[in-house]
Amino acid sequence: VITFEEIQTLDAEDPLRAKRAEFCLPANTIYLDGNSLGPLPIKAKERISTVIDEQWGKDLIQSWNKNHWIDLPIITGDKIAPLIGAATGQVICCDSISINLFKLLASALTLNRERKVILSPADNFPTDLYMVQGLAKLVGNDRCHLKSAAPHQLLDMLDETVAGERYDIEKITQLAHTKGVLVIWDLAHSAGAFPLELDNHKVDFAVGCGYKYLNGGPGAPAFLYVAERHHSRIHQPLSGWMGHKSPFGFNPEYAAAPGIRKFLSGTPNILSLTALDAALDVFDGVDMRQVEAKSHALSSLFLELISQSKYLTPLECISPATCEARGSQLAFSHEDAYAISQALIDRQVVVDFRAPNIIRFGFTPLYLRYEDIWSAVNIFEKIIRQKLYQEPQYQIRNKVT
Ligand SMILES: *Cc1c(COP(=O)(O)O)cnc(C)c1O
Predict the structure, then answer these.
(1) What pLDDT does residue 117 have?
(2) Helix (H) or strand (E) holding 306
(3) Averaged confidence pLDDT in the chain
(4) How far is the CA of 88 from the centre of ligand 1 (A)?
(5) Ligand 1 pocket: which of 209, 213, 276 to mutate (most atoms <8 Å of CB)?
(6) Nearest CA to ligand 1 atom 5
(7) How far, in Å, CA of 134 to CA of 138, rounded?
(8) Percent of the chain residues topping a pLDDT of 70
(9) Within 6 Å (CB) of ligand 1, which residues are found?
């Protein structure tokens, strides 16, 4: 049985404990939802007000040059690069994952014209499947065809007809390459959560999210990665002026910028991008292996505390049993998952509900304390033990769940 004193020792000895002070966190809230919207870093708040007051407010249009707004998609991309194991010049920040995925899917199909199959895990995040479906409608099923498979069958289904695909990053990428398959990784739940080695694993393409583990704020721009070896041969179809080699030459003919810049389409969203750029400073001096180790320790502690309560042990944890096999979160299924999530949120334990019956707890090492895990499990137990989730106000569905 773990005691509160032991929990306090874990916090006192945590090498990341000072990072919590770099975030604005509401009092008495245990935020176990960092992956759907990371909290506000103090630096992001400060930079945004400087950009508004000094740059937009005073320097106005000159800011594009004077304050380097024009290069911000690349500057911020290069700040993300070390977090995902990429050398500079291969990551750019812009648009949303959905849009970036479209660019990459189309690019991959043009690199590999004989291939038309896009293989995806059937339980992929819906937008990934939707974007392939949209592209297939545009170019025709004979040029782009979505095949989905249960995650455990993916490896068997990788064959010479597959053009693009998206788990063990190294193993899948390697196997895909032996069959001439290009791979796009969606890093929405991994960038900023654990160490990645895109360059070492010879990844072709990746997309990732700015507002989850990178804490860039609601609707923060996403990022995309294209391995340098593909830069010269690749063409992306959303060929807007910002991806032109000289956007201010106003040439009627499109000519792509060299390198990663050609993946830009329109004008960058400077306020959002500024927030993300400043938010990334939280990772200064952070070793992603420490983040991963603490994430494992937090989720293992959560499971251990659950196993100490006879009210919570019957809950079904649907995440893999070992830390190495799961991401930085734990999912539990329960027929009253929505109501339980609402009851937790009402008691300031902010979790995620995922339809139809999943409660998801996210563990973000930069601002969570072991003490928070202890308190969250106590509140969770009380809600289940006293059946507090059965109260009528927890049954009403909100628009965003
Ligand atoms: C959150 C998330 C997205 C979000 O896509 P946007 O187009 O940026 O809204 C995409 N894929 C995955 C796996 C996600 O978790």
Answers:
(1) 96
(2) helix 288-307
(3) 94
(4) 24
(5) 209
(6) 97
(7) 6
(8) 98
(9) 96-98, 125, 127-128, 186, 188-189, 209, 222
pLDDT in tens, 132-155: 999 999 999 999 999 998 888 888
Predicted confidence band at 163 (pLDDT cuts at 50, 70, 90)?
low
Distance 311 CA to ligand 1 centre (A): 34
Q: Tell me the average pLDDT across 215-229.
A: 98
Share of residues in the chain with pLDDT > 90 (%): 86
**DSSP secondary structure of 230-259:** GGGG---S---GGGBSSGGG--SS--BPSG
The CA distance from 316 to 321, in Å, is 11
Please give the torsion angle defined by the CA atoms of residues 127, 132, 135 and 136, in that order, rounded to the nearest 10 degrees.
-140
Pocket test for ligand 1, best of 36, 95, 127 (most atoms within 8 A of CB): 127
Q: Is 85 helix (H, G, I), strand (E, B) or coil?
A: coil
Compute the distance from residue 352 Cα to the ligand 1 centre, in Å: 15
Going by alpha carbons, the residue nearest to atom 1 of ligand 1 is: 188
Contacts of 277 (CB under 8 A, 6+ apart): 47, 72, 75, 76, 79, 93
Q: How far apart are CA 136 and CA 288, in angstroms?
A: 37
Catalytic residues: 125, 186, 211-212, 360
What confidence category does residue 398 fall into, taking pLDDT thresholds of 50, 70 and 90? Answer: confident
Q: In this structure, which residue's CA is closest to atom 2 in ligand 1?
A: 188
The reported pLDDT for the residue numbered 165 is 47
Nearest CA to ligand 1 atom 4: 97
Distances from the Cα of 141 to the Cα of 116, 136, 144, 145, 243, angstroms: 8, 5, 5, 5, 28
Ligand 1 atom nearest 101 alpha carbon: 7
pLDDT at 125: 92
Give residue 322's pLDDT band: very low, low, confident or very high (50, 70, 90): confident
Q: How many Å lie between the centroid of ligand 1 and the Cα of residue 189?
A: 9
Distance between CA atoms of 72 and 64, rounded to whole angstroms?
9
CA distance 302 to 375: 10
Indicate the range of 22-31, 114-123, 163-172, 332-341 predicted with least confidence. 163-172
Q: In terms of DSSP H, where are the helices of 63-221?
A: 63-66, 72-80, 97-111, 126-139, 154-157, 169-178
